[in-house]
Amino acid sequence: MAVGFGILGPLRVLENGRELDAGSRKQQILLAALLSHANTRLSAEALVEALWDDAPPRTARKNLQVYVSGLRRLVAAEPGNGAAPVVRISHQAGGYVLHAAEDGLDALRFEQRVRAGALAEALGLWRGQALDGFRDVPLIDAAAQRLDRRFLGVFEDWLDAELAAGRGAVAIERVTETAQRHPLRERLRMLQMTALCQAGRRSEALAVYDELRQLLAQELGLPPSPALARCYRALLCDQGAGPVPPRSAAPAAPAARPASVDPCPPPHLLPTDPPAFTGRTAAARRLAEVLTGGAGRLAVLTGPLGAGKTALAVHTAHRLGERFPDGRLFVRLRGDDGRLRPLEDVLRQLLAATAPAGRGGAPPGAAGRFDPRWAWQLWLTGRRALVVVDDARRESEVRPLLPEAGESAVVVTARPRLIGLEGAHRFWLPPFAVDEAVEFLGRTIGADRVAADPESAARIVRAAGLLPLGVRLVADRLAFLRHVPLSAYGARLTGGRALLDELCGGDPLVRVRLAGSVGELPEAGHRAVLRLGLLARPVFTLDEAAAVLDCDPGTAARTLEDLLEASLLTLAGADGPADDVRFAMPALLYAYARERAARAAERVPVRHR
Fold first, then answer.
1. Is 348 a residue whose pLDDT tops 50?
2. CA distances from 293 to 177, 235, 246, 251 (A)
3. Is 182 strand, coil or helix?
4. Averaged pLDDT for residues 593-606
5. Are 388 and 329 in contact (CB under 8 A)?
6. Separation in Å, CA 136 to CA 33, 51, 141, 366
7. Do 4-142 and 268-362+371-428 fold alike per CATH?
8. Is 580 exposed, middle or buried (0-12, 13-18, 19+ CB in 10 A)?
9. Distance CA 356, CA 129 (A)
10. Among 37, 110, 130, 523, which residue's beta carbon has the most beta carbons within 10 A?
11. How far apart are CA 324 and CA 387, in angstroms?
12. What is the pLDDT of residue 602?
């Protein structure tokens, strides 16, 4: 019989009803991480971080392979009827995927029961808090919290059906026990009030509302939601609470809310719409369609450094105000130094934006009194807001910010493709076309100046790499150098002077961003980028890369694929035969790599024979 796994409670590995030893603590962490992201690729970097946090050993990758081998032996038992194993582990694109069938993992069986409408059977699969004992690992904790919220949503739907059938009095004990564990869950509390009313305990239902109102004010600085306030008013008028509608039926727009309940305007926290925004017409239209469409309002904008991902996200968000009446928010995941901000800081920024003066808010120093993740999900419930999450590098950085339910939308900007974000619509932003780049240049330095010498203008934007960041740097420089003809400046860019010196001047910010994009790579990738700077041109073949990387073509191909995944390389000529494929490094990154390679060469001492 095949091995089965359970994560809806403490981690469990069973064979023929007998519990198996899952191995060492590290191997159990790896198993819990893979099971909690079943059928989804987890990068090796994410797994190494889960296993060793911020202090991985030098042999971390090799140790990871050893643990994976141990897990493969654990799941190797066959079903015995000729069918494929219900669980297997495969290596994919620098990461690992645990493939599981519904009969191999209780979390997947839970979802199957829910889809079939057997909610009571689905809830019966839970044995306690999901992945209890592994919540100290952030990657696992984020997945476990999603499972917990999924349980609550299904529990509420089940209870809603019980109330509709008039069985509220029978469910009081169970709903009260669950509500005590989740005292700030508003829909659950409304259902609890309804069940008490069906049992003729109206005064206790009113007491539930008063307790929740005080908790919301003390812990989060928020008033009760409009739906909860309406439920309370109905009780006061002795109309009975009645069955609470499903979450999806909750009003999403402020227009449906009484002004006396939420008189403050919705939060609007977007950067200024880029004044010289150019091109990207088709991408902006498709992005707007995704964000305002039906289910799956999650978009990921990817592309190399300087592709204009943030500009497109902000530009589109500015034009969707009427479609998101509950607010539009923007948050950067990294500070000015390029380091990842703590999740709690990001969540507090979002919560502060949703609770301006007069609206309430989390009091200073309240960190020990409430969970900001829970508060963020609570705010999103029943609202239709748009959230722009800027500069993500890993899926785990984004997942805690995604709405678990409701009609809010999220657009994420990232250089990596974040292929582990399930259900995301992905947009790859290529370089500008030449005419788009020239138009962008003209909006800054003047259309007349560009029209007077269009050939030189085209030469300049090509030298800058056709990416919006490079073209913007060129435009800013030319706006200052109004006395320099475009032809002379074009010759300057292609005449040997370092491109970064010309475009950056005394501003180190671009170099800092380039250094950050390379420095966050694994050591092999970091070294590869700098070695590629030794090439004579930024477009090259696999054989040329293998030569400069001093490795065989197979190893070079895997290295280049990792850089493609990180959006540090693109493909040129990929539509032709495999032998014609060319790899391309963006102009600014190539200039940085060449600069670093030249400095390294200067430091190499001369050896005298």
1. yes
2. 38, 36, 20, 17
3. coil
4. 70
5. yes
6. 12, 11, 7, 21
7. no
8. exposed
9. 35
10. 130
11. 10
12. 65
| Degrees to nearest 5, angle at CA 170 with 164 and 173 | 115
- What is the CA 487 to chain-centroid distance, rounded? 44
> 166-244: which CATH topology?
1.25.40
* Span 100-127, average pLDDT: 91
Any idea which fold 509-603 has? Answer: Arc Repressor Mutant, subunit A (1.10.10)
Distances (CA, A) of 465 to 414, 446, 470, 494: 20, 20, 6, 12
Helices (H) and strands (E) counted in the chain, each on its own, are: 26, 15
CB 569 within 8 A of CB 538: no
What is the residue-averaged pLDDT of the chain? Answer: 82
Whole-number Å distance between alpha carbons of 494 and 461: 11
For residues 208-222, give the mean pLDDT.
81
* C-alpha to C-alpha distance for 280 and 308, rounded to whole angstroms: 9
> With 60 as the cut, is the pLDDT of residue 451 above it?
yes
- Using one digit for the tens of pLDDT, what is the confidence trace for 44-70? 888 998 999 878 888 988 999 999 999
pLDDT for 312 equals 94
Contact indicator for 76, 104 with CB cutoff of 8 Å: no
Label residues 218-250 b or e (16+ Cβ within 10 Å = b).
ebbbbbbbbbbbbbbeebeeeeebebbeebeeb
238-254 mean pLDDT: 42
Q: Does residue 184 register a pLDDT over 90?
A: no
For the cut 90, the answer to whether the pLDDT of residue 375 exceeds it is no
Task: Place 359 in a pLDDT band, splitting at 50, 70 and 90.
Answer: very low
Asked if residues 453 and 486 have their Cβ atoms less than 8 Å apart, the reply is yes
Q: Which CATH topology does 268-362+371-428 take?
A: Rossmann fold (3.40.50)
Classify domain 4-142 at the CATH class level.
mainly alpha
Of the two residues 29 and 562, the one the predictor is more confident about is 29
Residue 58, C-beta contacts closer than 8 angstroms, at least 6 positions apart: none
| Chain centroid to CA 96 | 19
Write out the two tokens for 561.
């694929």
Q: What DSSP string runs through 477-544?
A: HHHH-TTS-HHHHHHHHTTTS-HHHHHHTT--HHHHHHHHHHHTS-HHHHHHHHHHTTSSSSEE-HHH
Residue the block writes with tokens 């070079």 = 556
CA distance 141 to 366: 22
Domain assignments of the chain as residue spans, ordered by start: 4-142, 166-244, 268-362+371-428, 434-497, 509-603
Position with higher pLDDT, 293 vs 340: 340
More confident residue, 93 or 117: 117
